[in-house]
Design brief:
Strand content: 25-35%
Main location: nucleus
Structural class: mainly beta
InterPro entries: Cupin_8, JmjC_dom, RmlC-like_jellyroll
Distance between the termini: 12 Å
Number of helices: 0
Number of strands: 6
Largest sheet: 3 strands, antiparallel
Subcellular location: Nucleus
Pfam families: Cupin_8 (PF13621)
GO molecular function, one term: oxidoreductase activity
Length: about 90
């Protein structure tokens, strides 16, 4: 659960079924991170990203967003902000 305490943030979610199209890093420390700039993708370098379905949202102060287990997520502050994440199981 991602909760916005102050300010607002842009959140982009991507289904884990898209894993093969995300150009994940090979090394152990970043194996769940994409090499693609998901807000401004280089589709020449990462052509398969063009078929990835992204789910975008803006989380405002006082709102929470459930991020399903295993889903890839990208978060960007739209203004000075504070948020908290609660992890389940």
């Amino acid at each position: 659960m991602f909760c916005q305490l102050r300010g607002s943030k842009f959140v982009r979610l991507i289904d884990p079924k898209e894993r093969e199209n995300l150009y994940l890093y090979d090394d152990l420390m970043r194996q769940n991170s994409s090499q693609v700039d998901v807000e401004n993708p280089d589709l020449i370098k990462f052509p398969l990203f063009s078929i990835v379905k992204c789910y975008d949202s803006v989380v405002e102060e006082g709102q929470c967003l459930f991020i399903p287990k295993g889903w890839f997520h990208h978060v960007r502050a739209l203004e000075p902000s504070i948020s908290a994440s609660i992890w389940f199981g």
